[in-house]
Specification:
GO terms for molecular function: protein serine/threonine phosphatase activity. Its EC number is 3.1.3.16. The protein contains six helices and eleven strands. The protein is of the alpha/beta class and 205 residues long. The chain has one domain: Metallo-dependent phosphatases (Purple Acid Phosphatase, chain A, domain 2), CATH 3.60.21.10. The longest helix is centred in the first third of the chain and has 13 residues.
Length: 205
């Protein structure tokens, strides 16, 4: 495996996701791609984005569930252009709530300190904020990679990734028509697209 690439909170901007993967020269055979949830709502094409994510999973990407997918499953909101097909509903149901490798723990919103990963609640993994931000980590020496909360609200420069010793926040606001960021964790690079102009920047950390 050459690189670990991760992206979160795509919010219907599937074509932007594909552009960033092309810019980063993503190779399913060589790179591990991790998608951290919130593929739908707010943006231009939720259902099309889900199809893109489905295809990426077929190629080996890890696809994690976010709170917007959970809300659809819980019938709390739909706001999609058409009803979900049964294939897509099963796709949402089968998405794990977290993944881990030898360096990182991946979850949409974060984790609750003091609770084993297998015992974390759906609510915490998809929506936690303050209790996660104000907790001391790491968990077994791993960094936690998460989305859900705009990084500029938790200490990062506007439009930038939050890099800390114990956690990495990557939601740069595509759902608010700001930026969508694909992060190369291996090389500490962010491929960032400005939603309003389509401009792509490559930022080294």
């Amino acid at each position: 495996m050459n690189r670990r690439l991760v992206i979160s909170d795509i919010h219907g901007h599937g074509e932007s996701l594909l552009e960033l993967l092309t810019t980063a020269q993503y190779s399913p055979e060589q790179d591990q791609l991790v998608l951290l949830g919130d593929y739908i709502h707010k943006g231009p094409d939720s259902l099309g984005t889900l199809e893109i994510v489905y295809s990426l999973k077929q190629q080996g990407a890890w696809v994690i569930r976010g709170n917007h997918e959970q809300d659809v499953l819980d019938h709390k909101r739909n706001q999609l252009a058409a009803p979900l097909t049964e294939r897509m509903r099963q796709f949402l149901l089968q998405m794990p709530l977290w993944k881990a490798d030898d360096q990182y723990i991946y979850a949409h919103a974060g984790v609750r300190a003091g609770v084993e990963l297998q015992n974390q609640s759906i609510t915490d993994l998809t929506t936690i904020r303050d209790e996660f931000f104000h907790s001391n980590f790491p968990i077994r020496g791993k960094q936690i990679v998460f989305g859900h909360t705009l990084t500029s609200r938790i200490g990062a420069k506007f439009g930038h990734i939050l890099w800390k010793d114990d956690r990495i926040g990557i939601d740069t606001g595509a759902g608010k028509r700001l930026f969508l960021s694909l992060v190369d964790l291996t090389n500490k690079i962010s491929y960032r697209k400005r939603i309003t102009t389509g401009e792509i920047d490559i930022i080294h950390y």
